[in-house]
C-alpha cells in the first residue's frame, strides 16, 4: 500500500517465530510484492498487521525481522508486541536492583528458548532490533478492528496507559515495573501478552498435571467465549490433564466467578485478532474464532501453517477469510 493512502483492508498475520520461507510464501500468496525503491513488500490496496512473536525458534530470525521492519518503515505493515519481543528486551536489560542479573533471568530454560535469536543476530543488529521491539505498541485499536498478541482486556489496558502514558514502553523504569511480580503493570502486561489465567485454589479446585507431568494451579482463560461467566465456561482444560492420583481431571464446576475474572470474557462488537495460542488444523468456530474474535496463530513453527485473516470490512468473522490454513 502506498504510505499515504488508507488501506481497503487488513491482512492479519499470525506468530512468525523466525519462519522466513513461510513468511515470503504467505506474503506472495496475499498479493504483496517487493517495492523496488524501498525493498519492502507492499500491496496496492491493503496493509499487513503482525500479531507479534516474530522471533525465537525458527531458522530465519534476521530475514523475518528485516522483512517486517522494511514493511512497517514503508507503511505497508504494522506490528504489535508479542511476549517473545517483550522477553527479548527483558533478557537484554540489566536489573538495577540486582547487580549482574537481568530483568529476565539467563536461566538455561530462558536462554534455550531464546537461542535462535541470540545465535543468528550479531550484537549490533540485536541491539538495533531490540530498540525496535521496545517501540512496538502492545495493542492496536484501528476502529473497525482490534489487534493484540494474547488478550484484549480493557482494564489491563487502562493500567498500562496510566503507567506508560500510552500503549508502548518508553523508559527502562517501566520495564523494571513490568518485570516485577506483584506490580499492577506486571499483571496487566501478562494478561495482554500471555493471556489471563484463573487461580484454581481460589475456587477450591485442586491443581492438575499437564501432558508433561508438570503440576499447575492455574487454568488458562477462554476470554474469547462471549458470555462466559462461570469457572467451567471460562477455563481451558485439556482432556489429557490429570489429577494427583493419575485420574482424568474432572470437569470444573459451574461456579460463578467474581467481576474481575469475569471481565476477561470479550463482550465487544468490534472484531479482535490475536495470536499466541498455538492452534492446529482448520479454524474451528467456538475454539479458534467466534463472531467477534479470531486467532491467527496456527503453529507455523510446529508443522502447522503461517496463517493470515483477510479482513475487508466485515463486522463478524468468517471462516473462509482465513488464508493458508492446513486441511
Ligand atoms: Mn506468544
TrEMBL record:
What PANTHER family is this protein classified in?
A: BIS(5'-NUCLEOSYL)-TETRAPHOSPHATASE PRPE [ASYMMETRICAL], METALLOPHOSPHOESTERASE
Please indicate which superkingdom the organism of origin belongs to.
Answer: Bacteria
InterPro entries, alphabetized: Ap4A_hydrolase (IPR050126), Calcineurin-like_PHP (IPR004843), Metallo-depent_PP-like (IPR029052)
- Gene3D superfamilies, sorted: 3.60.21.10
Q: Which GO terms describe its molecular function?
A: phosphatase activity
User: TM segments?
Assistant: none
Which residues does the UniProt record annotate as the domain Calcineurin-like phosphoesterase?
Answer: 12-108
Name of the protein in its database record: Metallophosphatase
The GO cellular component terms are: cytoplasm
Entry-linked SUPFAM superfamilies: Metallo-dependent phosphatases (SSF56300)
Amino acid at each position: 500500500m502506498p504510505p499515504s493512502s488508507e488501506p481497503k483492508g487488513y491482512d492479519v498475520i499470525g506468530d512468525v517465530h523466525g519462519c522466513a520461507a513461510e513468511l515470503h510464501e504467505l506474503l506472495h500468496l496475499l498479493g504483496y510484492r517487493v517495492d523496488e525503491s524501498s525493498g519492502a513488500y507492499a500491496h496496492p490496496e491493503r496493509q499487513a498487521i503482525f500479531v507479534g512473536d516474530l522471533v525465537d525458534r525458527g531458522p530465519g530470525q534476521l530475514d523475518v525481522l528485516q522483512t517486517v521492519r522494511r514493511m512497517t518503515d514503508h507503511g505497508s505493515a504494522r506490528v504489535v508486541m508479542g511476549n517473545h519481543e517483550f522477553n527479548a528486551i527483558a533478557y537484554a536489560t540489566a536489573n538495577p536492583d540486582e547487580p549482574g542479573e537481568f530483568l529476565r533471568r539467563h536461566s538455561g530454560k530462558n536462554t534455550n528458548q531464546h537461542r535462535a535469536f541470540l545465535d543468528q543476530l550479531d550484537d549490533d543488529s540485536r541491539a538495533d532490533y531490540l530498540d525496535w521491539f521496545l517501540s512496538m505498541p502492545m495493542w492496536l485499536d484501528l476502529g473497525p478492528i482490534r489487534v493484540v498478541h494474547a488478550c484484549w482486556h480493557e482494564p489491563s489496558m487502562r493500567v498500562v496507559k496510566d503507567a506508560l502514558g500510552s500503549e508502548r514502553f518508553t523508559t527502562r523504569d517501566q520495564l523494571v515495573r513490568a518485570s516485577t511480580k506483584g506490580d499492577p503493570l506486571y499483571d496487566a502486561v501478562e494478561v495482554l501478552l500471555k493471556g489471563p489465567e484463573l487461580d484454581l485454589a481460589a475456587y477450591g479446585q485442586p491443581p492438575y498435571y499437564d501432558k508433561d507431568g508438570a503440576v499447575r494451579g492455574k487454568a488458562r482463560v477462554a476470554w474469547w467465549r462471549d458470555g462466559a461467566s462461570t469457572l467451567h465456561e471460562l477455563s481451558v482444560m485439556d482432556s489429557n490433564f490429570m489429577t494427583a492420583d493419575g485420574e482424568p481431571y474432572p470437569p470444573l464446576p459451574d461456579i460463578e466467578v467474581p467481576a474481575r475474572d469475569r471481565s476477561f470474557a470479550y463482550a465487544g462488537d468490534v472484531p479482535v485478532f490475536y495470536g499466541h495460542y498455538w492452534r492446529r488444523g482448520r479454524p474451528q468456530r467456538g475454539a479458534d474464532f467466534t463472531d467477534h474474535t479470531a486467532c491467527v496463530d496456527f503453529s507455523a513453527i510446529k508443522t502447522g501453517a503461517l496463517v493470515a485473516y483477510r479482513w475487508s470490512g466485515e463486522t463478524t468473522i468468517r471462516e473462509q477469510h482465513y488464508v493458508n490454513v492446513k486441511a
